[in-house]
Amino acid sequence: MLAHEIRARVARGEVSPREVAQAYLERVRRLDPGLGAFLSLNGRLLEEAEALDPSLPLAGLLVAVKDNIATQGLPTTAGSRLLEGFLPPYEATAVARLKALGALVLGKTNLDEFGMGSSTEHSVFFPTKNPFDPSRVPGGSSGGSAAAVAADLAPLALGSDTGGSVRQPAAFCGVYGLKPTYGRVSRYGLLAYASSLDQIGPLARSVRDLALLLDAVAGPDPRDATSLDQPPRFGEALEAPLRPLRLGVVREGLSGNSRGVERALEEALGVFQGLGFAVREVSWPALLQALAAYYILAPAEASANLARYDGTLYGYRAEGEELWRMVEATRARLGLEVKRRILVGTFVLSSGYYEAYYGRAQAFRRRLKAEARALFQEVDLLLLPTTPHPAFPLGSRPDPLAMYREDLYTVGASLAGLPALSFPAGFEEGLPLGLQLLAPWGEDEGLLRAALAFEEATDRAFLKAPLGEAL
Ligand code: GLN
C-alpha cells in the first residue's frame, strides 16, 4: 500500500498504527533475510505504535532510515566497524520532525561505509541484494533504503545523497528518489561525508509519498547553518494545475547508455510531449567532467570529516594506553574504500598539490553551476538518465574507478546544488530503469509536480512489486 493510502486508512480508523507496524514487521522478518536491506530494527516499534495518538497527521506511517542518520537510542553505524555499538544521544532533525508528526522509525538500513560507494557492497556488514534480482546490486550508497521501499518492507525511507546515493539506488530498484536542493533538508544528525554536497532525501513508491515525507522533514533548522529559509509546500504544489513547461534533454556525450535506457528516454520524451511540454535538446558541456571534479572534492571533504573517528569520541576504541597507538589501531578498522578516499583527500589538499587539484576542481564547480544557470534560462527542467544501465551484478566492479564511473549522471546536480529526482521509467530484461529530472535551484516543488504528471500519464506502469503482493 502507498504511504498516503495508509495514512488515509488510519485517519478513517480502518486500521490502527499498531496493526500497520505488525504487518510490516512480519513482512520484514519474512523477506529481509534474503535481501539484507536492514542493519537493525526498532525494537520498541510496537510499543511506540500502541502509545501513538492516531490523530497525528503521520500516525501509522513507518520510515526506514539510512544508518548514517542519527536516531536517538537506536544503533547508527554508517555501515562501519568504527561505529559498531554507537547509540546516538540525539536525534537527526529529519527524524525528530517525522516523529513529532506521528511517523515511526521501522529500522535502520544498510549502506556503503559512510556513504562511499554505488552498490552497498562497501558496507562492512553484508551487501544488500536487488529485490528484482538477488544476483544484482541495489545501487548505493542508500541501497538498503531503496531495496526496502521497492520490496514494500517499508512504505517510506530516508536516504542521503552526496553524489547520487538516493537517485542511483532508486533507479536500480524501481522507486522514486529525490535529492533536494542543497539546504532544503537539515543535515543536523546526518553523519558527514562531504558537507558541501550531503543532503538527506526521501525514497518512496509514488510522487505523492515523496511529498508527504518532504513536507514533514524539509524547512529551515537553526541547528544547520546551511539550511535554507524556505518552508516546504509539496502537498500544495501537487494540487496545482500542471503548467506546460520547457524540457531540455541533456544529450551530452551520452553514448555509453544501454539500449533500454535509450528507449526509456525516447518514450519519456513522448510522454512529456503528450503532456504539452516543449521538448528540445540542450548541451551541458561541463557535465562530462563533473565526475573527475567530484572525486577530488568529495574525498577532500571526507578526509577532514572522518578525522573525528579516532577512538576518543564515538563508537569503537582500540585497546592501548598510548594515545597515538590507540588512534592508529582504531582507524585501522576503517574499510579499504574509506581509507582510499581519506588518502586521496589528504593528497589533493596537501601543500604543493592543492592548486593543481582542489583549487581547479573548485573553479570547475563554479563553471558547472554557471552553465546550469544559463541552461535554466532556456528551459524549465532538464531530463537525463539516472544511470547508463540497469543494476549490475554483485562483485562486478572490483576496480574502484569502474565503480566511480557509475555516478556519471548523478554528480552534476550534486556539485551544482540542484534538486534532482529519479523516477521509474521502464524495464530492461526485467530490471527497473530510472530517469532523472533536474530543476532550478530551490524549485523542488515544481520538479515533483512535473514528475507526478508523468506518473499519472503512465498510469504507474513502471511500478512493480518484485517480491509478490505488496502489503
Ligand atoms: N557513489 C558516490 C560516492 O561514492 C556517491 C555516494 C553518495 O552520494 N553518498 O561518493
From TrEMBL:
Residues in Amidase domain copies: 19-448
Matches recorded under PROSITE patterns: AMIDASES
GO molecular function terms listed in the Swiss-Prot or TrEMBL record: ATP binding; glutaminyl-tRNA synthase (glutamine-hydrolyzing) activity; transferase activity
Keyword Ion transport: no
Gene Ontology BP annotations: translation
Active site: K66 (charge relay system), S141 (charge relay system), S165 (acyl-ester intermediate)
GO cellular component term of the entry, any: glutamyl-tRNA(Gln) amidotransferase complex
EC number: 6.3.5.7
HAMAP family to which the protein is assigned, alphabetical: GatA
Assembly, per entry: Heterotrimer of A, B and C subunits.
Protein name: Glutamyl-tRNA(Gln) amidotransferase subunit A
Originating organism: Thermus thermamylovorans
